[in-house]
Amino acid sequence: MHKIAPAGIPTPFTSPDLAADLLARIDDRRLVIGVIGMGYVGLPLALTFANCGFSVVGFDIDGAKVEALNAGRSYIKHIDGGDVARLVASGRFSATTDYDGLTTVDAIVVCVPTPLNSYREPDMSFIEATTQAILPRLRRGHVVSLESTTYPGTTAEFMRPILEQGDLRSGRDFFLLFSPEREDPGNPIHNTASIPKVVGGDGAEALEIGCRLYGTIVPRTVATSSLATAEAVKLTENIFRSVNIALVNELKLVFSRMGIDVWEVIEAAKTKPFGFMPFYPGPGLGGHCIPIDPFYLTWKAREYGLSTRFIELAGQVNTAMPLVVVQAMADALNLRFAKSLNRSKLLILGLAYKKNVDDIRESPALELIELLEARGAVVDVYDPFIAEIPPSREHRALTGRRSVAWDLEAFAHYDAALIVTDHDGVDYAGLVAASRLVVDTRNATVACTEGRERIVKA
User: pLDDT tens across 191-223, in order?
Assistant: First the structure.
């Protein structure tokens, strides 16, 4: 058990006006913040608060993460370990596995996973376990903010009843918020501190506290009329992306049959200064948001006797993409070499779900490995950001699979290379020159002028 003293111990609330006291503590940075979940959302949020002058305690059940953070190390590629070390040395940031430390913070921000179960229904076990852990440590004056993406009604209908099992009441003794995360790991332009924050509160005082708190770290807060509205905002953002990606994935199939390059079409279309926003096709959806979040609304809509046909259709199109890629690979091998997938030796380039990150959550690469191997192919992988596939619930058999070294001479012995993730800094021209066949799902080889006859887009 890691017992790390918080960077600052809050003084007891003496004023009868809790909201006024909290607002004052926010303004003069006396508020102590606890962030539960030191992953791709929680860690950058905690560091941003600490960089803005707050004392922050990070909570996580993973002792290895806690040990790394307290030693000033980052385990996420795009998060600077030097920033972690500086904030730990300053005393403004520490991490612990001991949830009893929640009694010593003023604000508790929850950043835990919200996956789907095997029936594509919301798995609320992480939110439930975290809320149950907060309950015995909840005290008068606490601010509790949920950032995990979920269905409208979660904060008020699921979390609040658990937190009110004791004598404390939301809006009277503690203040409940929902403020959806808007992280885009590896984005070189937008980070936690530069993205406006949507805030919903359980009552006017909670909303004011939430906007004041988040307003200290972002350029703008956007207040909503209810917790459920804030929850719906996040789902809408991700459903918008899911539906539009499904559209271009379908256009890719249609245009390909016509001999038209969908990427060229999109590049030309996006020159229109109004009425068009570019989205790009790919081998399937990845990350913890777009493949999952739309189904939270689909599930909740059934409670109201409604079906989300448009959203579900988009999901069907997107989830079919790995099978489309496998078929494209099979067709290319058969057409070029009269060879089947069975016993073909293939190299997959890219394990991460998006370029320039080390995040494999819901990555289509994992499903592609399994689909190709099920057809008898021998598959190796290369990813400059991921040395070894970590454990995952859906792809346990791939745990420990290691990335091969970048070796163009060795790559020449594969029957085909499959580009799944278009990381920057990869020598795609060299790959094309060395390979017998390259199947490109990301248009990563667009700048390659030599050997284009060996490239198949999928």
Answer: 889 999 999 999 999 999 999 999 999 999 999
- Whether 198 and 233 have beta carbons less than 8 Å apart is answered as yes
Q: Does the active-site annotation cover 448?
A: no
- Cα 147-364-283 angle, rounded to 5 deg: 115
Q: Please name every residue paired with 416 in a beta bridge, in sequence order, or none if there are none.
A: 346
Nearest to 174 by CA among 102, 251, 67, 86: 102
Residues 350 and 437 in one domain: yes
What is the number of structural domains in the chain? 2
Would residue 5 count as lying in a domain?
Answer: no
Residue labelled with tokens 């922050």: 56
Q: Which residues of 352-388 are buried (b: 16+ CB within 10 A; e: fewer)?
A: bbbbbbbbbbbbbbbbbbbbbeeeebebbbbbbbbee
Backbone torsions φ then ψ of 440, nearest 5 degrees: -110, 115
Indicate whether 425 and 340 sit together in one domain: yes
One domain for residues 145 and 32: yes
Domain boundaries, position 330: 247-457
The arrangement of strands across the sheet holding 143-146 comes to 93-96, 55-59, 32-36, 107-110, 143-146, 175-178, 197-201, 221-223
Q: Is 385 within a domain?
A: yes
Give 265-319 pLDDT, tens digit per residue.
999 999 999 999 999 999 998 877 777 888 889 999 999 999 999 999 999 999 9
User: Catalytic residue among 52, 111, 211, 289, which?
Assistant: 289
CATH number at residue 150: 3.40.50.720
Query: Could you count the other beta carbons within 10 Å of the beta carbon of residue 19?
Result: 19
